[in-house]
Amino acid sequence: MSGNYKVPEETRIGHVHLKVSNIEKALEFYRDLLGFEVTERIGNSAVFLSAGGYHHHIGLNTWHSEGGSKATKSGVGLFHAAILYPTRKDLAFVVKRLFEKGYPLEGAADHGVSEAIYLDDPDGNGIELYWDKPREEWPEDENGGLKMFTHRLDIKSLLELV
């Protein structure tokens, strides 16, 4: 196989499957707080959740992790799973829900190409909630290449949408 192979442009990351310590606790976060719908459940050991009827965007299981301790910040593994919302207003709605429930946030940033909220799920898995800005607004360097950055997100203006 050639070293020049590039993954097709239409390729997408279809889902993330997480090990969790307790299915019910994880469902309180992903279903009840973030609003994903359960598409399938396998007893108390696994559940699959979706946005918009897809077979699953998020899989949760306790096959090797039931009752386990939280993920550590310094260990190897997943840094975060990112959930892309279609509009800024959709992101604002979920952020408002998080604030109303007193759910702790780890950070918030404007990356030029997107606006993002960072938090941990109940098992310490990093989660990014974000929306992409229109492509024509993405910042470029002097050669026309993408130039992302990390600036403070104006959460007040975000929440004014809802």
UniProtKB/TrEMBL annotation:
A Pfam family of this chain: Glyoxalase
Record keyword Zinc present: no
Limits of the VOC domain: 12-132
Keywords: Metal-binding
Keyword Ubl conjugation carried by entry: no
Entries under PANTHER family matching the protein: CATECHOL-2,3-DIOXYGENASE (PTHR43279)
Official protein name in the record: VOC family protein
Organism whose genome encodes this protein: Gramella jeungdoensis
